[in-house]
Structure prediction request, 490 residues.
Amino acid sequence: MNDITRAEVCATAVADAFKDDGEIFGSPMGIMPMLGVRLAKLTSNPDLVISDGESLFLAGVPPLFAKAEVVEGWIPFRRVFDVVAHGRRHVMMGATQIDRHGNQNISAIGDFARPKRQLLGSRGAPGNTVNNRTSYWVPRHSPRVFVERVDVVTGVGPRLAKEAGPAASTYNDIHRIVTDLAVLDVGGPDDTVRLLSTHPGVSVEEVRAATGFEVHVPTDVTTTREPTPGELMLIREVLDPRGLRTKEVST
Amino acid sequence: MSWGGADVGLLADAGKIKRLVYAFVSLDSIPLEPLFARARQDATIPEVCEWDEGMFFTGLKAASERLPFLPMRAGLGSDVLVNNPDITTITSPYGDGETFVAVPALKLDAALVHLNRADAHGNATYLGPDPYFDDLFAMAADEVYVSCEQVVDTAGLTLDTPVQRLLLSRMLVTGVVETPNGAHFTTCTPDYERDEKFQRHYATSAADPEAWSAFKQRFLSGNEAAYQAAVAAFAEEQA
Prediction:
């Protein structure tokens, strides 16, 4: 099993973000998060609860976008809000921007009153980040994504949560930021973004250059682990035989 | 007020929106709604209220319960509170006196919803896996208009589907209209799924002024029957 691709390293890094979650709803937004969550359920965390991304909890672990053989529950849109408020959930969202303090933006680029580019809107990001564990997936780590200050705060980082009081900060838990270059969190000084590991073949300098603010680099930065042969088999043969992961990370 | 999709894009393009409350506007399989994006970027919607989607749900619940607000965490610390300065917070009279968002009621003059089946009195069922929020929209509104794929006898509503799917009661409903394919080009499971080809045509047309005026000419310049006929002709061309 040689020729491990970057996309496969990213998939296991996403899976590792969910390995200690126990029996909660693993809620991925997008292809790589979905691949990683399903990989986690088949390896490190079989207790994860997963859905079809629409309204069904799946008992098995089907390939990406395949139909489930067995359904174990009903999770229509309205019930997602119950789970969010209840807190037994870990969501991995995308991010058009992330800043030094771990705030995320998926709403708009530029001035909110007249944006240069209108994006999705706030979606559930404000509620997710003050209620349940939240991670981010960034397929292209660049200074355009990692900015000093996001244009619109949709996902709330730990510092803004603390400033908003205990109702906001008690359950604020920004767990991991997985990118095509590295794994990060928000454990740096003053609740800032911190580098945990760089992917095989990526230097710390490359991550620094691709980050538009001064990312905290501790002395114990490691190399992101490579997938095991078993994980590679699951990624390549079971979960993503069509190679959808390469649409997000091509190298 | 909408969980926004092409409904918002089309109304924005027609210049019919004075105030918009939303948490997202998306075509789902195509992430961004081009007409809405243009309206935002040209600032043609006078009043824009972007909320968190849980807040939107809670605002409808507050209206349905005739309450002025309901408390929740969502919004705290985010720019939702910055960009909606009229939304304030409330401190709990119990325990540690934590401060929450006081989500204002989303009171509606009218609600427009589409379901799979209804009887002539306004009792209505959804047949797909997700009821969405159509009952909440109905309870938040003074007047409720239900369009449906098929009007059936009351007895027919529960003939082949569980009673739990009866989402709307006639006491909530003002008017019923039978509009087969009336959710097109969005999904109306199990009657039909999203018309992806047509949606792509909509999205690419909407991104270009010349193509968009041709689209409007072909699909949006007549009545509903003319639209459905044009959609059928488009499907045949694409087959």
